[in-house]
Design brief:
178 residues; mainly alpha; 5 helices; 64% helix
Length: 178
């Protein structure tokens, strides 16, 4: 997946321009396929939200909610493109997006599900970092960059949109054996 200049500007940056490692283990490539699947879900969710929030409105939520969701949608597109670039470089099948139906009917239900989806994404990337730190530590920098971005997104959904503590625990939990 290539991203446009407009997407990169909206996201605050594009696909990392660091060189690929010379090799990656089969297990890391399998885990990156899982991450690709999850990022496709997030990308579709946030892109649909931009359209839906325009119709639903954001009254009662922070004034910049729609702008933030546009940024998150673009960032998720960069995440997808990043994982797809790695998979393609190593001749590993890219996971195509599915047809999704998200159970949201208004801004509040969207934001609640957004927080759940980003929390799952954080746990999955923590797991990916834990396994690749042993087999392929060279990819940790990109994974660490992804998880911190996901955490900032999640903090917004928790605090500004849902009125929850943005950082409920001192350590996030990985999701293992996905």
């Amino acid at each position: 997946m290539n991203i446009s200049t407009e997407v990169a500007l909206t996201a605050g940056g594009g696909v990392p321009n660091t060189p690929f490692p010379s090799t990656l283990s089969k297990s890391t490539l399998n885990d990156i396929q899982v991450a690709n699947f999850l990022e496709n879900l997030e990308s579709a969710f946030f892109h649909a939200a931009v359209t839906n929030l325009t119709g639903w409105g954001t009254t009662g939520f922070p004034d910049d909610t729609l702008d933030l969701i546009r940024r998150v949608a673009a960032q998720e597109q960069v995440h997808v493109a990043t994982f797809e670039a790695i998979l393609s470089h190593f001749d590993t099948p890219v996971i195509p997006p599915c047809q999704y139906q998200f159970p949201v009917t208004d801004t509040a239900s969207f934001l609640k599900l957004a927080q759940i989806i980003t929390s799952v994404g954080i746990g999955a990337v923590i797991n990916l970092a834990a396994t690749t730190s042993i087999t392929d530590p060279v990819v940790i920098q990109n994974l660490a960059s992804t998880v911190t971005n996901e955490a900032r997104q999640d903090a917004f959904f928790r605090q500004a949109a849902l009125g929850l503590v943005p950082n409920p625990t001192p350590l996030d939990t990985q999701i293992s054996a996905i």
